[in-house]
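B., you asked whether I could sanity-check this one before it goes into the benchmark set. Here's the sequence:
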Amino acid sequence: MSEHTLTVAGVTVDTRHWIGGERVASADTFVDVSPIDGSVLGEIARGTTAEASAAVAAARAAFPGWAATPRAERARILHAVADAVEKRIEDLSIVETHDNGALLRSHRRGVMPRVAHNFRFFADWLVGLGHEDFDTRGHTNHVSWDPAGPCVLITPWNAPLMLATWKIAPALAAGNTVILKPAEWSPLTASLFADIAAEAGLPAGVLNVVQGYGAEAGNALVSHPDVRRISFTGSVPTAKTIAAAAAANLVPASFELGGKSPLLVFADADLDLAVDLAVEQYDNAGQVCLAATRILVEKTIAQEFTRRFTEKASALRQGDPRDETTDIGPNIHARQLEKIDGFVQRALTAGARAVIGGRRGEGQYYAPTLLTDVAQDSEIVQEEVFGPVLTLQTFTDEDEAVRLANDTRFGLAATVATGDRGRAARVTDRLVAGTVWVNCFFVRDLQAPFGGSRHSGVGREGGTWSFDFYCDLKNTVSAPKGWRDHG
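And here's what the prediction gave me:
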């Protein structure tokens, strides 16, 4: 075993950066800790401006060749990456569960298969991408999708590899090269994926991975003059910093940020379905940006809804995410747990009542919590907690429901539970959100646009919208005359 590798339940992971098709060490390291039990997984290379600059240079050098690679060949390589991921689903699942604490069963059955699907989808979409030529007074207009150049992708810790490949796959399909900076709290699957992609035939320099701790590597990447696209998923304050750096170089940036999404439950809803949707918001220990953390219930059914919710939520099993019977695992980091508990304790001090939960467990586990008696302008209603904490408020009619739902600075998603199709249409038309689910949750098709409104983000990704972002669109207008064709 090398000093630059670690082993997670029998799976070997390199702890160095991946730059230009080679492993690159750093002078300094940072500690990666498992949220399951607080054990140290290993020391990870801590990137600096030097490694960031080297990664951009590698991406820039690889760009002309990858951009010139025919679409069909790029698609073939991306399918080969998907094949390689599918062969390593168990390894990737084990490593990510140890690294970020999400359920092992979810990684095996849903998350890691989705990683492979991300590559297959965008490979196939690339092959069919294009617009029909159109005519303007006898002149032909032809739209082409030109690769933009090196792309910096900065990704979060709550679903590290799946969210990274939401960005990597379309960026590579478009003909760009990539520098990925994964979250410092969950760095391992990005490193393992770099090896998998290289073994599948992805050329050197097309994908680069720079590990980082703190802001130095990230700042160096987003401010680099050779970067042509930036895509970030994370917090609003960090997005503002990145936006300022991108503006200095006029680099297009896409942001998928926080959420404080509502679940609107009307009296005509299937109540058991509505309760199931509400309890589902505890998925991944509440560490889901799309989660409907504000439960808004029509007053006439609030008491019965709360009774059924309490019964179902209290039956959730919290514990080791490697256990097949576990429903809720730990939160990612001790700092995140402190943040969650701070929100809850301040809310309780301000007069909120905990119907369930409201307390920490052992280690990095926080009890699933539902708070009532909360004011609309309170911190717990307005700010993203990013933990297993929901609030419950009531409304009397559609107007009040929509007003409460829209009354935050966010606009990422919303969920509506109703048995009335007309009401569903009226309410969804008025909600401010990038995605609205009606009588369902977290149904995500990659051909649909995804992103947030207001402080929840800028831009959309998915299907053609991804290529709109990762490409420079060019329109070529040709006159009907002046040609000297021979033969």
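One thing to flag: The two ends are 66 Å apart (CA to CA). Otherwise nothing jumped out at me.
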